[in-house]
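Researcher: I'd like a structural prediction for the single chain below. Treat it as a standalone chain; there are no partners to consider.
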Amino acid sequence: MPLSNSQYDAIMRTYDQKQFQDKREQDERVREVYEHIPRIRELDQQIGSTAVQQARLLLGGDKEALSKLRLALEELRREKRQLLEEGAYPADYMEMHYQCPDCKDSGYRDGKKCHCFLQAQMELLYAQSNIREILKTENFRQFTYRYYDDSKIVERLGMTQRVYMQRVVEQCKEYIRRFPSEKGSILFTGTTGTGKTFLSNCIAAELIERCFSVLYFSATDLFDVFSKNRFESKNPEDMQEMYRHILDCDLLVIDDIGTELINTFTTSQLFYCINERLNRKKGTIVTTNLPLNRLRDEFTDRIASRIMSKYQMIPLVGEDIRIQKKFKKHL
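Model: Treating it as a single chain, here is the predicted structure.
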């Protein structure tokens, strides 16, 4: 999603701070080396003056003198490297050390936002969204089995609702354990209030704690973003940036598929999103109240086929937990 001007400025200020910190740390390393090996200070001064002479000769076209100067410059640098090695310093110890070598802590590489900028942008948008507050209460530490019946066997499951949900939670935790190497995808199905969104948030909370990038959208909000950026955005770069976030985050949660207005645009965008993330080997969690046959009917065969063949299918069972909670409050 595009940043506001103030959000963009906030991120760029962090890069200014990084560059300031990089330079300060380099200056401290240089002072340390000069203190322990004074000869290196002399070499640096000679290297600096020789480089200036080299530039003048280059402009004057004196190729013979330039060749001799290059040899002298390389000899000075060789001596400096040797002294650093003898002093047990890495060869690049006096150089600038960047937190992101790709963009040299500028935020941009080849005129485009660096991957570290996109990560910072995602973290900022996450921090300023309400999902942070939601995940404080919707996580595995808060999960309870008390709302799942344990008194009778569900015939189609061959076990009670509670035992089944215990297995589902283990599946979710196994998904998290394997996520760093596999980044698989899950489809949670089930009627309203059976815990689809809660479990999705539990997984999201665990992965965020492990420093994976996570984006959460209700299906309605996701397609609203697609629509606004396709038909209303005045800056085409905004749309490209938004697509990068949605397609490149480690985990994308799309909640309540089937509740949004379904038309040619939404089905094409959903297929593109699902297919592209599979191709990029990114994790996606989709939740829906629709049974699989309705999912195929409401969308298209190719969307249903892609999900059913590539996603881990986890149906949830039980009574509406929201109603149970409300009922128990009045007891």
